[in-house]
Write a structure and sequence with these properties.
Layout (H helix, E strand, L loop, with lengths): L1 H6 L6 H10 L6 H18 L7 H13 L6 E4 L6 E4 H9 L9 E5 L2 H4 L4 H11 L2 E2 H4 E7 L4 E6 L1 H6 L4 H11 L3 E6 L2 E6 L6 H11 L3 E3 L6 E7 L2 E7 L3 H4 L11 E2 L2 H8 L1 H18 L6 H12 L19 H7 L2 H11 L8 H6 L26
Antiparallel strand pairs: 1-2, 3-11, 3-12, 4-9, 5-6, 6-8, 7-8, 10-11
């Protein structure tokens, strides 16, 4: 059996051979194994791309054609109205453009077994509240300015503070760390802020009052909503807003499965390979949710194009297109005059290696049968005898 498989080791990739070994029935005869290996090899040969094939064009067509059938504006509500997540065509555009500012960022936080089983619902609820970002305006009932001495009084909601296990002292500490130049003291259920500057005006006091509303008191920055959801046999926490770096540091979180839909955040925290895989997963998820069928290899090619430089770049004139070595290829996308003038100023040379520039000047394109070219050695003429 091992001899038959070893015959195909130089003809098939290692991954396919390992999959055959894993799925092979015990006690399979040599004849049956040879037939299986031959069938696998035939399938592999048929799946290979021919030399000179325009894989980029096929990928663009394969993703673009089903993309026209997508619902143009789709939102998926994960339980509550605040947790809407962009899906459909807007989400695909968001990914391929490489946008840093997303409309709806979200995370799926998986927990370690101890927390995910659901036996400790109260613990899970408390953990969700610890993750959610709590701002001063969330626990305050009133913000007032005393015009006589320009002090700001913040009345706090006892019930809300009790719910998130927050004391008055902790709230005061958080405010004093993030607000410089003010003296802070407590007054029963209130915090009173007074400027150390003697020349404080009403206008400045009012600006400070508005500014302190967004001071973070507790939780993880950027996470505005949390929602524990049961998925199969375990509970996970879905969030609106994303902060992968800080969430992964939590002891209760399963760092191997926790994800975010913010691909730039994945690139910064986990690296470019993780970002590439995330692009593939996200696009595939959108296409699948729309009931469409696109081969994952087309999506992989797009993801490779976006990540090949080592940093994440969108398929725009500022991203992938700006890095093309060919002047005419860059000019064919957008803003042609700018590219041609800049190339003329520095005397840039275009070697006409790609498809676009050859189409523009009406030459055979280097794909398929246009890829090979004949080289003829011309015999040198012998010098004329004197």
């Amino acid at each position: 059996m091992a001899d038959i498989i070893s015959e195909y080791e130089d003809r098939l990739p290692q991954k396919i051979i390992e999959d055959v070994k894993k799925n092979l029935q015990k006690g399979a005869s040599d004849t049956k194994l040879r037939r299986i290996m031959e069938a696998v090899y035939e399938e592999y040969k048929n799946a290979k791309v021919h030399s000179g094939e325009s894989v980029g064009l096929i990928s663009a067509e394969s993703i673009g054609e089903p993309g026209t059938q997508m619902t143009l504006n789709t939102f998926h509500f994960a339980g509550v109205a605040e947790m809407n997540v962009t899906l459909g065509l807007p989400r695909i555009i968001e990914i391929l453009d490489g946008r840093k500012e997303l409309e709806n960022t979200m995370m799926e936080i998986y927990l370690k077994k101890h927390y995910a089983t659901g036996k400790r619902i109260e613990e899970l609820r408390q953990l969700a509240l610890q993750i959610k970002e709590t701002k001063l305006k969330d626990i305050a009932t009133e913000f007032t300015i005393n015009i006589a001495d320009f002090t700001i009084e913040v009345k706090l909601d006892k019930e809300k503070m009790k719910e998130i296990e927050l004391t008055l002292g902790k709230a005061m500490d958080a405010v004093s760390k993030q607000l410089k130049g003010y003296n802070i003291k407590d007054n029963k259920d209130s915090i009173i802020l007074k400027s150390r500057s003697k020349e404080e005006t009403f206008n400045e006091t009012y600006k400070t009052k508005e500014k302190i509303k967004d001071i973070k008191i507790k939780g993880i920055k950027g996470i505005s909503q949390v929602l524990p959801v049961k998925r199969e046999e375990e509970f996970i926490i879905i969030t609106a807003g994303s902060n992968l770096a800080e969430v992964l540091q939590l002891e209760e979180v399963d760092a191997y499965r926790t994800t975010t839909n913010n691909i730039f955040e994945i690139e910064q925290v986990l690296g470019i390979e993780a970002a590439r895989q995330s692009i593939i997963n996200e696009i595939f998820k959108v296409i699948e949710s729309q009931g469409l069928n696109v081969d994952v290899r087309h999506i992989m090619l797009v993801a490779d194009t976006m990540c090949v430089s080592g940093t994440l770049k969108g398929i725009t004139r500022y991203g992938v297109v700006s890095e093309k070595s060919s002047v005419l290829a860059r000019a064919s996308f957008e803003t042609p005059i700018k590219h041609i003038i800049n190339a003329a100023l520095v005397g840039e040379v275009d070697n006409l290696n790609s498809v676009v520039e050859n189409v523009m000047i009406n030459q055979p394109v280097p794909i398929g049968t246009g890829l090979p070219s004949l080289t003829v050695k011309v015999p040198q003429q012998k010098g004329k005898e004197k």
